[in-house]
Design a protein that fits this description.
CATH class of one domain: Alpha Beta
Shape: elongated
Strand content: 15-25%
Number of helices: 3
CATH architecture of one domain: 2-Layer Sandwich
Distance between the termini: 69 Å
Radius of gyration: 23 Å
Oligomer: single chain
Amino acid sequence: MQKIKVKQIRSVIDRPLRQKRTIEALGLGRPNWVKIHNDTPQIRGMVNKISHLVEVSDYVPTGEEKEKPAVKKKSSVKKTASTEKTKKTSAKAKKEIKSK
C-alpha cells in the first residue's frame, strides 16, 4: 500500500476545535512533527480539511528505516513489601494528623 508523509507546518493555536482534533488524530501536535500514514481516502480527507496546516509528500522507504509496532506492551508492576509498607505508613500519618 502507498504511504504518505504528513508534516505539520503551522501551529493549531487560535484554530477551531475540529481542526485541533484532526491534527491530534493524525498523530501530530507541534510544527515540524512528521507522521507516516497509509494513503487511504480517510487520511486524505483529514489532510484536505487541514491542508493549510500540513504539508503532504509521497513516502519512499529506505532500507535503514524500520516500522515501529503500533502498540507497545505495558510491563506488569509487582507489589513489593516496600510499597505496601509505604502505604501503611502514610495511613498512620493521616490518622496522627487527624487526631491532632
